[in-house]
Amino acid sequence: MTRHIILWKLKPMPPENKAAVIANIKTGLEGLLGVVPGIVSISVHTHGLPSSNADLMLESSFIDDDALNGYFVHPAHLAVATTKVRPFVETKLCLDFAD
Questions:
Q1: Is CB count within 10 Å lower at the N or C end of the chain?
Q2: What does the pLDDT read at residue 19?
Q3: For the chain, how big is the Rg over CA atoms in Å?
Q4: What is the pTM of this model?
Q5: Which domain holds residue 27?
């Protein structure tokens, strides 16, 4: 199994806008389950503890590295990434690993 973990820090914005952006990211990415082949699980965590310095985290699992690579270029993923995620992100960290 291949894991794909992303941490995002969003650009500064009013709290009500931030809440809407986070909700759209969560809905968009979690909606890819069953659409993009090879996704085993996908979850966006939005309620970090006060000690956190990231706004949200993507935790996803794929059947293998090929499935992860297919996810990166899948049109449904690209649509979510380019419209719901990237325009609002200030910082992104990624860790992919096999377990």
A1: C
A2: 96
A3: 13
A4: 0.95
A5: 2-98
pLDDT in tens, 24-57: 999 999 999 999 999 999 999 999 999 999 999 9
Tell which residue, 51, 43, 53, 55, has the closest CA to residue 89. 55
| Number of structural domains in the chain | 1
Take residue 3 and report the two structure tokens written for it.
């894991």
Give the total residue count for the chain: 99
Looking up tokens 């960290």 gives: 93
